[in-house]
Amino acid sequence: MDLAADYIADVIVQFERIKAHGDKAVAQVSDDELTRVLDPESNSIAIIMRHVGGNLRSRFTDFLTTDGEKPTRHRDGEFELPSASRDAILDDWNNGFGCALAALRQLTPADVARHVHIRGERLSVIQALNRSMTHTASHVGQIVWLAKHLRSTNWKTLSIPRGQSEQFKPGPR
User: Fold this and answer.
1) What is the arithmetic mean of pLDDT over 75-96?
2) Which residues of the chain form beta strands (DSSP E)?
3) What pLDDT digit, counting tens, does each position of 87-112 carry?
4) pTM of the full predicted structure?
5) Domain residue limits, the chain
6) Which CATH number fits domain 3-155: 1.20.120.450, 3.30.70.260, 3.40.50.300, 3.40.50.20?
7) CA-based nearest residue to 50, from 134, 129, 165, 143
8) Alpha-carbon gap, residue 5 to 27, rounded angstroms
9) Which residue in 116, 88, 93 sits closest to 104, CA to CA?
10) In terms of C-beta density within 10 A (0-12 exposed, 13-18 middle, 19 or more buried), how is residue 143 classed?
11) Residues 89, 50: contact at Cβ < 8 Å?
12) Start-to-end CA span in the chain (Å)
């Protein structure tokens, strides 16, 4: 059993699941709903997607060799309402996840013992990966919540529908 290899494989699976949840939620909203802001302190789904894409690109470009906060990243700009099309927003999102998954697939078990830097802070690879996964999952949770709110009774659940949990319980062993 190689814990480091198993860890890397699981991080890849979890990032793929996180992205799939976001993709399924975004697919349910209209273009108007994609950019709708609920109140002045809220972010639209599109803004969250731009932020996630920018964050993942910054963190995972040259993951093991450069600081995870790249000088070319303009984080504050990620929180401005985009005038971009759905396709451009999806490109940002997919590019960020693509960058992360490509970097993750290049990691070796030996890399797990290394350290990286994010905004000058030294982190173990495990800490950096867990931090990124938690950050990304929390924002995808926001996307799912917003999409569910906006679609209301037209929402198609991403997991077990209400009232159907009992049928998914395992039987006796």
Assistant:
1) 88
2) 115-118, 121-124
3) 999 999 999 999 999 999 999 999 99
4) 0.92
5) 3-155
6) 1.20.120.450
7) 143
8) 33
9) 116
10) buried
11) yes
12) 26
pLDDT reading at 1 higher than 70: no
User: What pLDDT is recorded for position 89?
Assistant: 94
**What is the 8-class DSSP label of residue 167?**
G
* Backbone angles phi and psi of 116, in degrees to 5: -130, 170
H/E stretch holding 53: helix 45-60
Structure tokens at 82: 């985009």
Residue 37 structure tokens: 């802001």
Hey, what are 66's tokens? 């450069």
The first and second tokens of residue 19, run together, are 């992205």
User: What tokens were used for 118?
Assistant: 């994010």
CA 141/CA 100 separation, integer angstroms = 19
Bridge partners for 122 per DSSP: 117
**pLDDT confidence of residue 50:** 95
Going by the DSSP 8-state scheme, the letter that residue 8 receives in this structure is H
* Residues making up the chain, counted from first to last: 173
Q: Which residues are within 8 A (CB) of 156 and not within 5 positions of it... i.e. 6 or more apart?
A: 28
